[in-house]
Specification:
heterodimer; A: alpha/beta; Rossmann fold; eight-stranded mixed β-sheet; 12 helices; 8 strands; B: alpha/beta; six-stranded mixed β-sheet
Chain lengths: ~300, ~375
């Protein structure tokens, strides 16, 4: 495991960018690009990252970046990769960097297509569990009970599981991570870079204005998401599922997760949850851990 | 080399000879045989190119955008609903100033499902910033695909080009065509050298947020490039004629217009059919000519004005802007004034023979126009 002090000093997310204070996306991208390095071409659909870049004629991204329509990140990555291959530049990493709206919802078809046809790229979904950029609307990744500006009384449905959908494409590498564990994220991005074929990564990215918490608590929130088992960190490689950090013990049943209420109660978006809602969320989480405990034993 | 083949096979052959490095396409009737043929060329090694078998037309255009932005020549083809699904990415490609070349087989829009020719699909893309050609023979399809790359990639243009032709009437009909050698094509169309590209040695950010202080200039530049494309199209047509002996008149192909007091204006397969109508009417002593609109964007205003100076115009549209009129009639009236006769004909593949066009001429002379075979006749 690489130590924080050993991460490369090169920065590809520059200072003075237009991210909100406490934004988890810059933490995630900064870490991922440190792992991927200079020889990376990035494609970014409509998302917070399109704003973070800053306004033309300035930019805060130091790797070549193509902006593309909301649903088109993965398809544009297929084109970039094909063009690189045609020019013999197979050493360049193609990164599609999209939010959960652009991945779970509007971009799902293009993502599935690119994964299925074997595009040699890394697709990262930074998951802040809603449409942050447009002002906190519900997405397919928004959890049960969460307030958004399109679910004023709390979302009535559970989120879908996109990493599971990615795995169903029989791709060589799927990983989930959290910005609170940057060395784990770095290691996973580094590994993804070395694997040929489609790689899917998903990073939990707590959004202060969207989740309604103080901007100084972003990392804490991402850490608590893992410690409560609300977010699981794992890798799926060559058909083998491995859990990382606290998620390992939680899934195996050897570690008592922190009460999920600790995480929920820090967030204004869950302020209207009833005791019943909290019990349902707890049951759903347990069900998820049990599913993964069984799944990790299958291989 | 002389071949007798369908427009689709000939378009695929032209695409192959243009040596695109990336092809990305999704099948749709009546375009499918182009995709099949190109897949064959790539898999047999006849064409050294990456073929991306995308899951939709939206992704076809998105991946062409990604590839072209990474510095290589690209090709795609579609039709009808596929073109409509691409609509957002058509704007994107043009505003990104990427010289992508695409063949669109004109096909009507559903419901009810129609696989037959009409031009509402491409007319609906009028304002995307793409140059639009309409072909009337398989030979012209071949010649235009090659020429399109020269026009699109020209430093004064830097815009994508859509080459349209009628579903089945051309796409699946065999016609003879003269095919130059690969060496001749290579000398006419050298390897692509992009004006900009995504390059890790020279990182740029393309297409980030742009404020009101810059956006209008971007649009203005695009509009001016469309204007400049008129000359480029004419120059390329002339150079093609010098090399291969075939010209399509640049923007408008004129036939027996010199002494004509009436000129029929149409495009695509109807534009070809009207040749026979003009000959028939000439036999009767009518002083009639044909102006076949080869290029819809940029719109050939100057040429159209010149034709209208000495002749009355009868415009035949194979499209309808509901609540208004045929799109070409609108453009022509905006250019030369409202004193024209205009017909809507051939929607959803309804046959338009040379006799129908003769009949439209007769109706126009009786001061009638409108929807041919629905309103009039």
């Amino acid at each position: 495991m690489v130590a924080i002090k050993d991460l490369p000093e090169e920065e590809y997310v520059l200072e003075g960018n237009a991210a909100c204070p406490g934004c988890p996306i810059t933490i995630a991208l900064r870490t991922v690009l440190k792992a991927l390095g200079k020889d990376t071409i990035m494609t970014v659909p409509a998302s917070c990252s399109a704003v973070i870049q800053s306004l033309y004629p300035k930019t805060s991204f130091a790797v070549p970046t193509l902006n593309i329509a909301f649903e088109a990140a993965a398809a544009s990555a297929s084109g970039i990769e094909a063009a690189l291959h045609a020019q013999g530049k197979d050493d360049v990493t193609v990164l599609a960097w999209a939010g959960d709206g652009g991945s779970y919802d509007i971009g799902l078809q293009a993502l599935s297509g690119a994964l299925e046809r074997g595009t040699n790229f890394i697709y990262v979904c930074y998951n802040n569990q809603m449409y942050s950029n447009t002002g906190v609307q519900r997405s397919g990744a928004t959890p049960y009970g969460a307030w958004t500006t399109t679910t004023w009384t709390g979302k009535k449905e559970r989120q879908k599981n996109l990493a599971e959908i990615a795995m169903a494409h029989n791709i060589p590498y799927v990983a989930t991570a959290s910005i609170a564990y940057p060395t784990d994220l770095y290691r996973k991005a580094k590994k993804a870079k070395e694997i040929k074929g489609p790689k899917y990564m998903e990073i939990i990215a707590p959004c202060p204005p969207g989740w309604r918490f103080d901007m100084s608590k972003t990392v804490e929130m991402a850490k608590l998401a893992v410690e409560t088992g609300a977010w699981l960190m794992y890798e799926f490689e060559n058909g083998k599922l491995t859990f990382n950090g606290p998620s390992k013990g939680i899934v195996e049943g050897s570690r008592e997760p922190k009460p999920v209420e600790d995480w929920l109660k820090m967030q204004g978006r869950f302020r209207n949850l009833t005791e019943e809602d909290i019990q349902k969320i707890k049951r759903d989480l347990k069900e998820g851990w049990e599913f993964y405990r069984k799944k990790s034993q299958l291989f | 080399m002389k071949v007798i083949d369908t427009a689709n096979n000939i378009a695929a052959l032209a695409a192959k000879m243009a040596r695109p490095k990336v092809i990305s396409a999704y099948p749709i009737t009546p375009q499918t045989t182009i995709v099949e043929k190109l897949a064959q060329y790539v898999e047999s090694g006849e064409l050294k190119s990456e073929f991306i078998r995308v899951e939709s037309e939206h992704s076809a255009m998105a991946s062409c955008i990604g590839a072209e932005a990474t510095g290589v020549r690209t090709f795609t083809a579609t039709s009808s609903h596929g073109l409509l699904l691409m609509h957002e990415m058509l704007h994107w490609a043009a505003l990104a100033r990427l010289p992508i070349v695409m063949v669109n087989i004109n096909r009507a829009i559903g419901p009810g499902w129609s696989i037959w020719s009409d031009c509402n699909d491409s007319v609906a893309q009028r304002d995307t910033g793409w140059l639009q050609f309409y072909c009337s023979s398989n030979q012209e399809v071949f010649d235009t695909v090659i020429q399109a790359y020269r026009v699109a990639e020209h430093k004064d243009v830097q815009l994508p080009v859509m080459i349209n032709y009628d579903g089945f009437i051309l796409s699946h009909t065999s016609m003879p065509a003269e095919i130059p050698s690969q060496e001749e094509i290579d000398s006419f169309l050298p390897e692509y050298s992009p004006e900009w590209k995504l390059d890790t040695d020279n990182p740029i950010t393309h297409g980030n947020i742009i404020g009101p202080e810059y956006y209008m200039e971007v649009r203005y530049d695009m509009h001016m490039s469309q204007q400049k494309a008129k000359k480029v199209i004419k120059d390329v047509d002339r150079e093609w004629a010098e090399k291969f002996g075939r010209s399509y008149g640049g923007l408008i192909e004129k036939y027996r217009c010199d002494d004509a007091d009436t000129v029929i204006v149409s495009y695509g397969a109807m534009g070809a059919e009207a040749h026979a109508s003009v000959d028939e009417l000439r036999k009767r002593g009518e002083k009639v000519g044909l102006a076949r609109l080869r290029v819809f964007r940029p719109f050939p205003k100057e040429e159209m004005k010149e034709i209208a100076e000495n002749s009355e115009l009868i415009v035949i549209d194979r499209n309808i802007s509901p609540g208004m009129e045929g799109a070409m009639a609108t453009e022509i009236k905006a250019t030369v004034g409202t004193n024209i006769k205009q017909f809507i004909a051939g929607l959803g593949g309804r046959d338009v023979t040379y006799r129908d066009i003769v009949r439209m001429y007769e109706l126009a002379k009786e001061n009638k126009d409108g929807w041919y075979s629905v309103e009039v006749e």
